[in-house]
Design brief:
two-stranded antiparallel sheet, globular, Four Helix Bundle (Hemerythrin (Met), subunit A), 9 helices, mainly alpha
Length: 218
């Protein structure tokens, strides 16, 4: 049986290393000003968003632990709470996310890659078993443990690495460990269950004839 306290940080750090690599690639630089495969994002903005998926971990870990006694949610609860019913393109939430991502991209692809690389190396030394249950206050004031926040970041990195790779014609170069894909898939199914109900998800996965509509987490 895998050790959950090390499997999730290991998968996250592997995904972060892949972010560093693709940000420093010639393909990303060549397509920097182009529209990406993700609606509303240029390649530059998507690169900034990916980088922030790594950098925010340190930012939240460096902040004081929440003083309130709010029970920490899990990864699926965090994503469900933050996304809510916001329109994925036109809502204020997502406009703000795009603006922060584009601002981060102003450093340029290579500088972003270096920043992610430095953060990854620091996190290799700090993401040990002793910190996994530490509570942090993340986006919109949602309280979550470090371990569960890493699971949300894995979803972000796995999904948006694919978006960026497709955007720059590198979709065949995705080489994340299977554990990263597995963990992201688990969280996405959990989100879909909370948003649509378990039976709808089961029917969507197993009974196309009774539930032809796709069930999505986002």
């Amino acid at each position: 049986m895998r050790n959950e306290s090390t499997a999730i940080p290991t998968a996250f750090l592997a995904a972060a290393e892949r972010v560093e690599t693709i940000l420093d690639s010639k393909a990303v630089v060549a397509h920097w000003e182009d529209q990406s495969a993700l609606e509303g994002y240029t390649v530059a903005g998507l690169a900034g968003h990916l980088a922030r998926g790594v950098l925010t971990v340190e930012q939240y870990m460096d902040a004081p632990e929440p003083s309130n006694t709010t029970e920490a949610t899990d990864a699926a609860g965090y994503i469900t709470a933050v996304l809510g019913d916001h329109d994925p393109v036109d809502s204020g939430l997502h406009r703000g996310v795009r603006a922060r991502s584009l601002d981060a991209s102003k450093a340029g692809a290579s500088a972003l890659a270096r920043e992610v690389g430095h953060a990854r190396l620091r996190l290799q030394g700090s993401l040990d078993e002793s910190i996994m249950e530490r509570r942090i206050e993340a986006l919109q004031g949602v309280v979550i443990t470090v371990e569960e926040y890493l699971r949300t970041r894995l979803v972000e990195l796995v999904v948006h690495l694919d978006d960026l790779a497709v955007s720059v014609g590198e979709e065949d170069s995705m080489d994340l460990p299977q554990g990263a894909y597995d963990e992201a898939a688990v969280v996405l199914v959990q989100v879909a269950v909370r948003r649509h109900g378990a039976l709808s998800v089961i029917r969507g996965l197993a009974r196309r004839e009774r539930h032809p509509e796709a069930i999505r987490a986002f």
